[in-house]
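Supplementary notes (optional reading)

For those who missed the lab, this is the record we used. Protein: Elongation factor P. Length: 188 residues.
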Amino acid sequence: MATIGMNDLKTGLTILYNQSIWRVLEFQHVKPGKGAAFVRSKLKNLRTGAVNEVTFRPGDKFETASIEQTEMQYLYADGDQHVFMDNETYDQISIPADKISESLKFLLENMTVKITTYQGEILDVELPKTVELTVKETQPGIKGATANGGGKPATMETGLVIIVPDFINEGDKLVVNTDNGGSYTSRA
């Protein structure tokens, strides 16, 4: 692990700071007319998911954190554990449901995801940008409805509830965006 200062910050860099692992989401070098320059940053805690704004001063030092990403396939749920398999070595790991509760809304069996780890500790399950899910339950579609209508709630096969256009019916396959907690993109 390398020790770096505030001038070495870059978007996407992972650092050890305040006894936790943080990813730099944004940073801005600020040079006020009076006083020393500083860096205003937005960091995401990879253990808790919290996003904090942090200001770094010229003397601040921290270490880079070497995280690994492994492509894995989601196999099945075994009680409170969810089993994933490494696509290259075929090794299997189990992750508790509470550690990946947000990702479970989008996970289907055989889906390929990226598992982020730091020294063997599982930090995150990175989903594809979009997933295809089937509508399990919604009100019947309205004939002649357009995508610009008010929308209605639909429960997907994973239990995720999203707002969909009025013309969507049960059994329809939809493309759902995973970035913002789940939103309708289009029909599949």
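If you only remember one thing from this example: The chain has a mean pLDDT of 88.
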